């Protein structure tokens, strides 16, 4: 596996790969890899000749009171996992390599960023769009892979690619879960033993809420079913429970072909998110 820290070295390898006519699959990450990331690599491996992974904890998407310094990092472990997964090139730049200058030009996420996680994290998705725009230009991928666990991020990136004609395809990959249903996440390491035992109830609650919505087509009732199950079964504090159209993320769910029931829950040292996406045409 090729390992590079500098943009010039990355571009040299990308140019050679493209010159040889190979397709490039790209998996952008913030590291501390788990099986969810590996599922993205597996899909990229199947569909492309050359797989690039980036590891970069992006400061632009962290607010002033968020956990940038606490975000788990283990490059040695991540490198070993990337090799075992069949990554061809690992790009792990430093912050001054990715952001050496600031000319004052910014990218702003639209209304999709005003709900769910974006409602309590102003500027977060602006930072996401900043880094993925740079990475897409640097890696020049044929296809780029994102997990559905971060469904709001996925929707916003799909919109960016569509509206600004990026010459690449965004591929959605299903959420990878523990045996008890908890979505894989780098932040799961911050859960206490008691919280870890409670955490799978989040997915159970979302499933119950979505089952109710399939029957009644009532978004408020589905949300209340979800809320009650989380409140009765966990010590966590609910940040939000929302049922919205997907991927445009509006409250107009009646005539949309797909909806998302999304949840965020605070535990003492971790904030967990999860969701289910439903093709609503199945119920018409």
Description:
The chain is of the alpha/beta class and 284 residues long. The protein folds into 2 domains: 2-173, 3-Layer(aba) Sandwich (Rossmann fold), CATH 3.40.50; 186-274, Pantoate--beta-alanine Ligase, Chain: A,domain 2, CATH 3.30.1300. The protein has helices at residues 7-19, 35-47, 75-85, 95-98, 116-120, 124-139, 151-163, 193-198, 200-216, 219-233; strands at residues 2-4, 24-29, 50-55, 89-91, 143-147, 169-173, 237-245, 258-266, 271-279. A 6-stranded parallel β-sheet has the order 1-4-3-2-5-6, with helices on both faces. Strands 7-8-9 form a 3-stranded antiparallel β-sheet, with helices on one face. The model has no long low-confidence stretch (mean pLDDT 94).
What's the arrangement of secondary structure elements?
Layout: E1 2-4, H1 7-19, E2 24-29, H2 35-47, E3 50-55, H3 75-85, E4 89-91, H4 95-98, H5 116-120, H6 124-139, E5 143-147, H7 151-163, E6 169-173, H8 193-198, H9 200-216, H10 219-233, E7 237-245, E8 258-266, E9 271-279
Parallel strand pairs: 1-4, 2-3, 2-5, 3-4, 5-6
Antiparallel strand pairs: 7-8, 8-9
Family: Belongs to the pantothenate synthetase family.
GO molecular function, one term: ATP binding
Subunit structure: Homodimer.
Descriptive tags:
284 residues; Rossmann fold; alpha/beta; 19% strand; 2 domains; globular; 10 helices; six-stranded parallel β-sheet; three-stranded antiparallel β-sheet; 40% helix; single chain; Pantoate--beta-alanine Ligase, Chain: A,domain 2
